[in-house]
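Appendix B. Extra example for self-study. Work through it before the problem class; the solution is given directly after the inputs so you can check yourself.
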Amino acid sequence: MIIDHPLLGPRDAQEFTYLGDARLIERPDWQAADAAEQFYDYLYQRDNPAGEHRELWFHEQGDRSWLVVTRNTLTHEITKVEMARDVARAKGRSK
Amino acid sequence: MSQINRLSGGLIDRTQTLDFRFDGKSYQGHPGDTLASALLANGVRLMGRSFKYHRPRGPISSGSEEPNAIVELRTGARQEPNTRATTAELFEGLEAKSQNRWPSLAFDAMGINDRLSPFFAAGFYYKTFMWPKAFWEKLYEPLIRRAAGLGSLSKEADPDIYDKGFLHCDLLIIGAGPAGLAAALTAGRAGADVILADEDFLMGGRLNAETFALGDDGGAQWAAATVAELASLPNVRLMPRTTVLGAFDHGIYGALERNADHIALPAAGKPRQTLWRIYTRRSLLCAGATERPIAFDNNDRPGIMLAGAMRAYANRWAATPDRKVAIFTNNDDGHRTAIDLIAGGVSVAAVIDTRPDAPRLADCELLAGAHVVDSKGRLGLRFVTVRLTDGSSRPMEVGALGVSGGWNPNVHLTCHHRGRPAWDGALAAFVPGAELPRGMSVAGAAKGAFSTAAALASGAAGAVAALADLGVKARAVKLPEAEDVPVNLTPFWYVKGASRAWIDPQNDVTVKDVKLAHQEGYRSVEHLKRYTTLGMATDQGKTANIGGLAVMAEMTGKSIPETGTTIYRPPYSPVPIAAFAGRSAGKDFRPTRLTPSHKWAAEQGAVFVEVGMWLRAQWFPRPGETHWRQSVDREVLATRKSVGICDVTTLGKIDVQGTDAAEFLNRVYVNAFAKLAVGKVRYGLMLREDGMATDDGTPARLADDHFVMTTTTANAVSVYRHLEFCRQCLWPDMDVQLISTTEAWAQYSVAGPNARKLLQKIVDAEHDISNEAFPYMACGEVTVCGGLRARLFRISFSGELAYEIAVPTRYGDGLIRALVEAGQEFDAVVYGTEALGVMRIEKGHAAGNELNGTTTALNLGMGKMVSKKKDCIGNTLSEREGLNRDDALNLVGFRPVHRNEVFAAGSHLINTGDEANAANDQGYLTSVAFSPNLGHTIGLGFLKNGAARLGEVMRAVNPVQDAEISVEVVSPHFIDPEGERLRA
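Solution. Structure tokens for the complete assembly:
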């Protein structure tokens, strides 16, 4: 597979390490009243879609960027590649 | 006598003669020959024995689809089993051997299997070798393996080099027959970056095997001229001897180039084979077609081959399997073989055509509406039996039979992304389906354009279309005039009533086996394949699968397309494991990382141990020490008595900088770092988000906005990756930067009562490292040995007064020598990982055995460290009820009740009086060592509610070694429980 890195252009998937569902960015608030429930969902309740999936890839043998890759799990077609940091900020994450 | 079946003409170089050997006998051939063509020319039809029945076999094809002529090539370490004689290029001195026969090819003792064939039908193994279970491993499997052998391995290391390579192109053209050449010419002249790959050593495909004219030339001449022009174009890369083995994601293709298989030895330093990864923008599959046989009883005798192959041997290699042959066909193309062989001076007894209205095309007898129903000849064909239209039989004395059941487009690569082929009723064959791998198109016979003119035109058009897709305008090239005969065929798969009629000769699957599979309910093609092993041999059923489908379709009353095909998977043809490995063999597979003190340690005769990729000194034997324990005990005792030095460079080091660095560490460790003073170190425990301990280390604050943290050796990479995840994905606006500095610093532990005295000789005098100025858990930047910058940390893994000192890695060798010299007056020792382990167990420090992925901070006795005033990774889920039960495991120490007894790590803890079973399990031992300071075995382990059970006596049970030792639960801190030595 080829991942079109937003900063570096097309790179072979072999340079990357896979983590999983990009939802891992949405780490719950530890002080929420139902934090335990939310963390349980966050860590264990993952979708496993046959189709489009947003997932985290780490450019370990490259610039060490975490990327959010939108990949079709049936065809491996990649339709979008974003910097995970940008995605996190768009989700309202900051410090 | 030699080359009795060599005809005239052909594309071989008769000016040179090559000597080669097959089964110890000498033969001659010519450059341009394959092993199979040269053997046929020498009158050798018998080249192997079949897999199951050990039936005598000869080649049925002239290419990579060959199921029968499977041989062992070369000798010694280069011996290579299971290669196809039909693709092995002949070279001077080639040594080849037949396989799966004993004692000889002509007399094979296991040929008895053929007589026992009623017992070896499909499913035989499943049905027969079931019971008793124990017999399987000891009796049945070895027996089957011996009987059903293929080739044998040399069992020596492969002496050759295998390479990997990476190529990029606009257009990859797969196959250099008429379609591929026309496409390459079109795209090449248009200036596109083109790769033209073909598995054959001579490009041209069927043009080299036929006698058609192309314009004013023969096909082979046109192919040669075209290849010459392509070779002159700088934007075209010609890759003969290169099999494109698979279509992978995003336009990436795998290809195996056989750089040196056609010569006796690869040139020095040059690879034997190269596995290419080809990144393409577009690809054009011009893989041609494969002929399929017609099944009849005993259709597997040497001499019976595909009609197109027989024609290829005659036209390209000037070889014939016999001087008297017959043809059995269901289509016009089969007749071409008769025409060409007659022209070559071979006697063709008859063309037997299944079609009652078959045209008479060749100048020989035509038996229309007739069938070949049987054959005779022990080691090669002698007679065929022909059943005529009136039902009468006619024996025909021939030494070879060319069979044609039509041609199958080579759709394999079109299906590598799980697309399915479509059925073309006119061709009675599968053609590429609608769903192709993205960027791929198909031309020529591979998509059913079978005539030469159609292939040329579709290749050229395919290239124009592919380039247009890329925005490159290609002009149509002038193509030569060529034959344009339509396919004329009536499907005919097997002779009715046939039973021992081979469909898959390599795996010995017959018509009868397919019928049996149907009878027993294995009717889906995937079940049929697995039950009978149809198409599962090294040829993957290239000539066989369609025949099996046809029989099954008939049995189930469905059509062939309704019956469907199995899934085509890469590789297209077998690829040696060595090619997949490439240069990643031996030490290059897993490089060794050496510590900065390695050279010095090797000079001392250290014993090394692999720790991940690192090679670390395990202990340093001294003269007279014959057992490792002597060395390790000495190193431990000397360290605790005076001072010891250990290389701890392998621990991961991560430099953390930025105004939010302290807050960042607060979030990734369970304990607080925000208020850690500059110049101080603190132990830190790291959890996974699920609350399990994952790593620990000793972050040191060098400045307000600058920490250096450490990780365990094993987790250096994964912790770094995790921290980057936290930084980029969870807290993207934190001002914090990370970099791994593991290899930038050489780091040594100096431990023992005299550690400070030793270091005061090394650290430059202006740095006060007295206990008052540089207390326990202090850190700072110093200079050593007269000005060399260094970092000093007062931390201790051994429990002694101890420091770790780091210098830039290039000074590591110098520093170990300086430390050892400075330590002489204190009788300093250098200790290895064993002594390191003993001392940390004596001190009760957790390490990898305890941080094993299943333990929490509570289990490790560090529950109170988890700050509840702040968030950190794992904090919330570590509070889960199940992880905080009253009987949760606690890390405690163990010693034998009878001090001379020894127990083992991994032993489970059982209460006295309880039966030793899983239900009564109280915990387990994680780390065990002999303590030379205490004089007995000690251990660390996890015990239910262990912290409250000190003093209890229980049993350490080790069922693996049938051992049971009485142990006493004690504090994990065997040495200096109050920590006075640390602060001395």
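Self-check: Chain A has a mean pLDDT of 96. If your reasoning did not lead you there, revisit section 3.
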